[in-house]
Design a protein that fits this description.
The chain has 2 domains: 161 residues, Medium-chain alcohol dehydrogenases, catalytic domain (Quinone Oxidoreductase, Chain A, domain 1, Alpha-Beta Complex), CATH 3.90.180; 151 residues, Quinone Oxidoreductase, Chain A, domain 1, CATH 3.90.180.10. It has 342 residues and is an alpha/beta fold. Strands 3, 4, 5, 6, 7, 14 and 15 form a 7-stranded mixed β-sheet that branches. It is 30% helix and 25% strand. The model has no long low-confidence stretch (mean pLDDT 95). This is NADPH:quinone reductase.
Length: 342
């Protein structure tokens, strides 16, 4: 099979290489997936650049992908040859990710890809959609994401034009929440609106106080604020989040964009009984990961999760041979979803 590999930490064009490798064989509890598309996420280039890929001599990057099961290992009875699936955390603690024609994965980290859902959509789920799900369920306000599960809640999505932001908007709206998104341009405002945000605030239009006031103005019940904040840049936005979150609300942050530490307003957060909730998928409890996979799959079945320009997530396709270019595009802040064609 054709696969992309790297053997040392470094820049994309210096260490990524397209090679021929034997087709892998699934072991107990595993299936082999013939991949059609692979998603490229920021975590992929960060693993490659920073050496966070485990103790392997050779690594094929990629956490997300979509394709068809073409072989099953011993003890597998929940998936069969011919089933369409999507992956998440494919390269976590494994050498073989999704930048390859085939990957072998444990069944518990695979979701079924409903008939009619494209492989482009399947490969765009994974890390973004599961991260969004966990952010929306990190507190006790909503434990699952399903129609009606977030009725009456208000959600603020910081960075509404990003892949996680896009998934959070679509999932929260499907579950019945009122969604406010923050963006940095008119172009990104259009994308967040296309994803389904009820209200969009351009945080570059004024000061942090102006941004907070704009969020308060459109959130249900005015100054009472939002129930859940899905935060991509706590270092930038902690003060805004503390001001706009409701009493008993949750600020769920999933990245360290713009800084590895954040000045959290202590009195403003404890006065509101607010929960500051960090999250990352790699250490997420397996039952929570499975719940997210199941809810995301249900959203796909319902047509509530979409990709493409009209869904606020433009797609950028690269052939496998241009994986370095795809990594560079993500590292450079490409707006939308970068996919590999396999």
């Amino acid at each position: 099979m054709r696969a992309v590999v790297y053997r040392e930490t470094g820049a994309a064009f210096e260490v990524l290489e397209v090679v021929d490798r034997p087709v892998p064989v699934p072991g107990p509890g595993e299936v082999r997936v013939r991949l059609e598309r692979a998603g490229v996420n920021p975590t992929d280039w960060k693993f490659r650049a920073n050496g966070m890929h485990g103790d392997f001599d050779e690594v094929t990057p990629g956490q997300d992908g979509a394709g068809t099961v073409d072989a099953v290992g011993p003890g597998v009875d929940t998936l069969a040859v011919g089933d369409r699936v999507w992956t998440v955390l494919a390269q976590h603690e494994r050498a073989l990710g999704t930048a390859a024609q085939y990957t072998v994965q444990p069944v518990e980290t695979l979701g079924r890809l409903p008939e009619g859902a494209s492989f482009d959509l399947g490969a765009s789920l994974g890390v973004p959609a599961v991260t969004a799900h966990r952010a929306l369920t990190a507190g006790d306000l909503a434990t699952r994401v399903a129609p009606g599960s977030m009725e009456g809640l208000a959600v603020l999505v910081a960075g509404g034009a990003g892949a996680v932001g896009n998934a959070a908007i679509q999932l929260a709206r499907w579950a019945g929440a009122t969604v406010v998104a923050t963006v940095s341009s008119e172009e990104k405002a259009a994308l967040a609106t296309a994803a389904g945000a009820h209200h969009v605030v351009d945080y570059t239009a004024g000061s942090a106080d102006d941004t907070a006031a704009a969020i308060e103005a459109v959130a249900p019940d005015g100054a009472d604020g939002v129930d859940i904040v899905v935060e991509v840049s706590l270092a930038d936005n902690a003060a805004i989040d503390a001001r706009v979150v409701r009493n008993g609300g949750v600020i769920a942050y999933y990245a360290d964009k713009q800084g590895e530490s954040a000045p959290v307003p202590v009195r403003a957060t404890f006065a509101k009984n607010a929960r500051l909730q960090g999250l990352i998928l790699y250490t997420l409890r397996r039952d929570l990961l499975r719940a997210a996979i199941d809810d995301v799959t249900a959203a796909v079945e319902a047509g509530a999760l979409r990709v493409g320009e009209d869904a606020g997530l433009p797609l950028h396709h690269y052939p496998l041979e241009q994986t370095a270019e795809a990594h560079a595009a993500v590292e450079g802040g490409a707006v939308g979803k970068v996919l590999l064609e396999l």
